[in-house]
């Protein structure tokens, strides 16, 4: 379990995460993640990255998100709000298609994201 982080630090991470995605600079996004980070999303199987819906490690994240960015040339996130706990931040945002999403991001002692989960409204 990671140490307790200041709420302001985690809120800033959430804002930085949105800003990084909006630059479409994948390497900038990946600097926010630990090398062993795990990401879960219902979109992962649809993109051909395994039926479990989970990718593991920065190389797998790079491959998954690289493919996604290629398919979403207009990708843009509009921050709605951030919610914090002692070791995580939930980023509530709207994407370029008007879909609202909550992204759960758990951090380690160094403040790097070790676990992420994209949470979408059911279709």
Automatic annotation (TrEMBL):
Superkingdom field: Bacteria
Originating organism = Bradyrhizobium cytisi
Any one Pfam family here would be SnoaL_2
InterPro entries named among the record's database cross-references: NTF2-like_dom_sf, SnoaL-like
Protein name per Swiss-Prot or TrEMBL: Nuclear transport factor 2 family protein
The chain positions of domain SnoaL-like read: 15-107
Gene3D superfamilies, per the entry? 3.10.450.50
């Amino acid at each position: 379990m990671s140490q307790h982080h200041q709420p302001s630090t985690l809120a800033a991470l959430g804002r930085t995460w949105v800003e990084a995605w909006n630059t479409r600079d994948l390497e900038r996004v990946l600097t926010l993640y630990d090398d062993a980070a795990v990401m879960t999303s219902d979109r992962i199987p649809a993109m051909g990255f395994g039926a479990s819906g989970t990718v593991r490690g920065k190389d797998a994240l790079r491959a998954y998100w690289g493919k996604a960015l290629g398919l979403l040339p207009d990708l843009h996130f509009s921050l709605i709000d951030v919610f914090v706990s002692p070791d995580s931040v939930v980023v509530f945002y709207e994407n370029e298609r008007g879909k609202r999403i909550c992204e759960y991001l758990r951090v380690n002692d160094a403040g790097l994201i070790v676990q992420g989960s994209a949470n979408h409204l059911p279709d």
